[in-house]
């Protein structure tokens, strides 16, 4: 039977367990788990051991033959290290009830990734779920990954999600009930409830404590809870810096029904704390009228920068005037100060651990080929034609020895809508160049907004092995139905093999065929794992 068909059969067995949007497992998690792969049926364990022994014998023979053929070549051109691959776990792998969602499927999925040769997984930890020192479910998943032989990249998310439902801590909601201006606000007074406004970072708006004080306590609690995993399992800690974990304002709504974001977005500067800060800065430059609010001619979320006489107009737009330069400098300055402040707090709490820190920047590539780059400006990135807004961000990351995560590594210019004047390739190159200048290591990540096809995987490989980029690692989002579906899993399998192994010959393949057939047959015979 063809390898692709066997892989599809194996992963199809996982699909029912990984659809968790409307179904939540009710089984309480424990702080310790049996070894993930060893907790599978006994017959699977025996056959897996057998396959492992066969693979060792066969692989040693194959590797020895290839080594003899390539010794001379490798002395002249030593191969570059292949960046390790991580796979992101579902955002709601732990539900809003602090329960591991579909723990059996997670175990099976981790074993499949381990067999495939993936280096590790990314565990998203929600501030709102673990805020009361309720770490047991997250620790259970960390133990599953460790026992499956996988490393762990932990993401500390200080933002919430509407879909899936991952709210901020309850005490934040209580504080917002009496003071809704702790949330970002747009011109129409719409509040963004999944992230605190950067303007309140050092204000005692959370029951007498500042957000920075609360974040620092969260970091210390995480460090204490996961102390057993730092020496052997955890490789990186990602610190969330804003909406979706990215260093940006929530300037554009999330895409819906797989429709891309096409507008310029809106400035998020209308909570009372942002307006008060803007007023002070305007008075400092003796221009009090500049501090009354955001640009009066800024368009709405889904508008085009070329529509009418607006702030972002390509020629003679207000963004190029002294007022525009003042406002954009202030707006981006608030963002940069927040990033610097939060990374400093994280470094104080976690910096002496043997695991580096990471943080994510936004990848706002639409309208990048215009002079004003409006969608980047509303997100807080002062990155117009002739001005590199990523230089200052890279400088902050370098200051805190923080890796930079760039989402969108799979995107290419040819796949974008021409009318959006988008250029993900040039934007990716610009960000990497800024990182290289400041000595910041780069982690690639797919955008997770669309399925990665064959062209996308080719683009990822090109970026990973570009001599001018030298990316540190790759995180692929996410484990779930999309990853294990018949259309995507074979592509991902072939991609991982091309990354973790030398060129595959026909005599290499049976080992993995048998391994995946084991998963397929055992999951098919295990009635317990077929129930949700």
Automatic annotation (TrEMBL):
Active site as annotated: 246, 445
GO molecular function: beta-amylase activity
Pfam families: Glyco_hydro_14
Protein name listed in UniProt: Beta-amylase
Keywords on record: Carbohydrate metabolism, Glycosidase, Hydrolase, Polysaccharide degradation
Family classification: Belongs to the glycosyl hydrolase 14 family.
Organism encoding this protein: Zingiber officinale (Ginger)
Entry EC number(s): 3.2.1.2
GO biological process: polysaccharide catabolic process
Entry keyword annotation includes Hydrolase: yes
Catalysis: reaction(s): Hydrolysis of (1->4)-alpha-D-glucosidic linkages in polysaccharides so as to remove successive maltose units from the non-reducing ends of the chains
The keyword Hydrolase appears for this protein: yes
